[in-house]
Specification:
Radius of gyration of chain B: 23 Å
Distance between the termini of chain B: 42 Å
Strand content of chain A: 15-25%
Number of helices of chain A: 11
Largest interface: A-B, 79 and 74 residues
Oligomer: heterodimer
Largest sheet of chain A: 8 strands, parallel, barrel
Distance between the termini of chain A: 39 Å
Radius of gyration of chain A: 21 Å
Number of strands of chain B: 16
Helix content of chain B: 25-40%
Number of helices of chain B: 15
Order of helices and strands of chain A: EHEHEHEHHEEEEEHEHEHEHEHH
Strand order of the largest sheet of chain B: 1-2-5-6-11-12-13-16
Largest sheet of chain B: 8 strands, parallel, barrel
Strand content of chain B: 15-25%
Chain lengths: 401, 464
Amino acid sequence: MPSAPSPLHLAVALDAAGWHPAAWREPGARPRELFTARYWTDLVTEAERGLLDFVTIEDSLSLQSSSFTGPDGRTDQVRGRLDAVLVAARVAPLTRHIGLVPTAVVTHTEPFHVSKAVATLDYVSTGRAGVQVKVSGRADEAPHFGRRPAVPLRVDELDSPAGLALLKELFDEAGDYVEVLRRLWDSWEDDAEIRDAATGRFIDRDKLHYIDFTGERFSVKGPSITPRPPQGQPVVAALAHRAEPFRLVATSADVGFVTPRDTEDTRAILTEIRDAQATAGRDGETVHVFGDLVVFLDDDPAAAADRRARLEERAGAPYTSDARVFTGTPAELADLLLEGREAGLTGFRLRPAALPHDLERITRGLVPELQRRGAFRTAYEAATLRGLLGLPRPANRYAAL
Amino acid sequence: MSKPVKQIHLAAHFPGVNNSTVWSDPAAGSQIDFSSFAHLARTAERAKFDFLFLAEGLRLREQNGEIYDLDVVGRPDTFTVLTALAAVTEKLGLAGTINSTFNEPYEVARQFATLDHLSAGRAAWNVVTSWDEFTGQNFRRGGFLAQEDRYLRARQFLAATWELFDSWRGDEITADQDAGIFLTDPAPGRFDHHVDQFDISGHFNVPRSPQGRPVIFQAGDSEEGREFAASGADAIFTRHGTLEDGQAFYTDVKRRLARYGRTHDELKILPGVSFVLGDTDADAREKADVIRHQQVSGPTAIKLLEQLWNRDLGSYDPDGPLPTVDPLVGENTVARGRASVRMHRDPVATAARWRALAEEKDLSIRELIIAVTGRQSFIGSPATVAEALNHFVQSDASDGFILTPHLTPGGLDDFADTVVPLLQERGVFRREYEGDTLREHLGLGAAGAVRSDPAGAANRKAAS
C-alpha cells in the first residue's frame, strides 16, 4: 500500500506592502506603517494564526529598483526597507510557533556577524530561526561598501562568459559563507557550559572549537561568541533559479525556493537538485524544495482577476515575476499546490501580491481548504522550526563520538 | 540661592563576560537565554531607568593561549537582542556597543536606523574600536589595521554613518495612495564619502528613524576620547572611582563643550558602578565582602595578576605574597581579547605600587587583587545607597549611573524595589517617563537634532 502523501509545508514571503509594486495603493494597505513594528507584528501574527511553517522577510543592501544598476527614479513604488534580521527579532517575542527566516545578503556582510545574529534570533525565538542567504551582483550595492569592484552587468548578460564567471564566484563565496555559519553554530558543543563551582570553571574549554576556515575570499578563526543555538543549526534557505544556485541549495541549504513554470519544469528542477544533492553526499539528508508562487487570491475568481487588473492598471504594466503568478480562489490554488506535491515539491512559499489581503486569503481561505483535504496541519505539532519541517536536530560536527 | 536639584539618570548594564558576575551563586541564571535579558529590561523599565546597556565582544578571551574559562563565556548579538527587547518594553532606551573596526558604515547605519524604527526612538550606540589583530582573525578585513589607522577609521566611521543617517531628511515618504506618489524624492538617501578609510557612495535604504540618529555614547578616558566626546557624543560611559576623581573629570569634560557650541546639559556623564544592598549598612558590607571573594577566587586572582605581569604566574600561591619578578613589558602576549590589560600604561610602576601596598597592609595576592580591582561600588542600606548616589550627582561628580548588578538576571530587582522609591521621594528621579524616546529621557533636546559633525571636528582637532 502506498503511504499517504506527506502534508504540505507552507511559508509566506513578506515584502513591504506585497509583491505587486502597486500593492501599497490598495484599500487595505498600510503604506505609512511599513517601517513600524506593529505592521510586521500584525503580518507575522496573521501567518501564525494560519499555522504556516514560517515567514521569510526580504532584504537588500540597496534601494528597491526595477533596474539592476541603480535607483530607477520611480516615485510611485515603495522604496526603503528595514534590516530583515532585526524585523524578525522584533517579532519573535510576540509569536510562539511560526518560523522566522530573514534574508541576509552574503556578498557584502560578515559571516561572523550573521552567524551570531541568526543564533541570537534562535535564542530570542526559542528555536524558530532560519536565514535565507542571498548573493548580490547588483552594481549599486558594491559601492555602498567600497570593498569590491562593482561589476556592471545586466540581467540579460548573466549567460555571457563574464556573467557565468560572476555567478560562479558569488555562489562559491555563498557556499563558503554557509559553511562558516554552520561551523560557527557548531563551534560550541551543546554541553560546553559546565558552571563547575568546585573547580571555578564556567565552561569546559575542550568543548569549544576553533573553526579555522580559510577560503578564497575570507578566513574565520572562531569560535563563535554565541553558544550553540537552541536548534543546533538554524534553518538555511536560498532562492534558486538556475544551475549555480541549485548547486548551493543541494550542497548547503535545508530549504530551496524554486520557480518552475509548470509540472514538467518542476520535475526537471527537482532532478537537477536531487542529483547535485547526491553528488554532494547529502542523499540521506532532507533538503526541502518549495515552489515559489505570487498569489492574487479571492473567494470569487472574477474578484481576483479584477484586483490584478486594477493593480496592473495602476502600475501601468502587466505584472510579471520570476515566479509563476497565480490568480484565483483558494480552492483552485489548493489544486495547484497538490499537483506540485505530486511532482515532488515538499512545500510552497507563497508571495502575497498585496498585504494584508492576500495573506489573509492564504490563512483564512487556502489553509482551511488544505485542511479539509487532509493536506495541512490543524495545529502546530513542534516547538522549533526544524521540528515543523521534519528536520532532525543535527549532531555537532566537533563533538567526540 | 541654592543650586537647583539635578535629576539623576539611571541605566542597567547586563552583566558581561568578566569576573563581576557571580555565576556560581544559586540565584544566578542564564547569561544567554532571552528570558534573562527580558527580565533585566523589564526590571529597568519598571524602575523607570533611562536605558539598558549591552557590551560586545567579537572574539573569546584567551589567556596563556587558552580560552578563558573562569568567567561567564558567551553572549548574544547586540543588535538582535536589543531589537527583541523592544518588543517586551515600551520606553526603555536600548544601548549597545558596536565596534567600528570590523563593521562597515552602511550596515551599521542600517541596523541602528532599523533598531530606532522598531523601538520607536530608543536606540543608542556606544562607539568603540578594536585594538587587536586577534579579533581581526574572525573577519574578512583580517587583523592588518595599524594602531593609528584604527582610531582614524573609528572617527571616519562615525562621520560616515552620520552622513548616512542624515541622507534621508524625513519628509520623503508621503505614501499618497490616490495620487500614486510614495516618495517625493526619486532617489533618496544619496551619499558620497571619500576619505582614507572609506570610498563609498550610493543610496542609503532606510528612511529617517524617529531619533534621526541613535544617541551616541563614548567610553574611555584619554585626552583624545574626552575631546571626541565633547565634540559630538551624547553621553560618556566612565569608570571614575571616587567622588574627587569624578568631579575632576566632570569639570574637565563639561568645560570642553563650549568649544563646540554645546551647552552643559548636552553631554551626560555616567560612570559604570556596582552596588550591594543590605538591611543595614553593616549587613551590606558583610555581603559585599562575600561577593568580592566570590568574584575574585584564588585562580581568578592569579589570572588577573598575570594580565598586569604579562607572564605565566600559574605556579604562585594566591594566598601567598606577590611575585618579586617584574612584569614583562612589550606587546601583550598572555591575555588576549580583554580591555583591562590596556588600562595599565606603565605595568612596572603599577606592579611596584601594588607590591608596596601589599607589603604595607600584609596582603596576599588574592587580597591585593580584591583591593585594587574594585570599581566604584555603592554599599549599604537602601537609604544609605540612595543618599550616596544623590550626593555624587548633586556634587557634580556625574549625571547618573550605569549600574552593573553582580547577578544575572535578578540582580537589579532589590534596587528597583527599594532604592528607586527613595530617590523618587527625594524628587531626584522620575516617577513616570515624561517622553517616549531615549533622547527625551536623557534631556537631549529634540529628536534628530544634529548639531555638528563630531568626527570631523575631532579630525580637525587632531590635525591642528
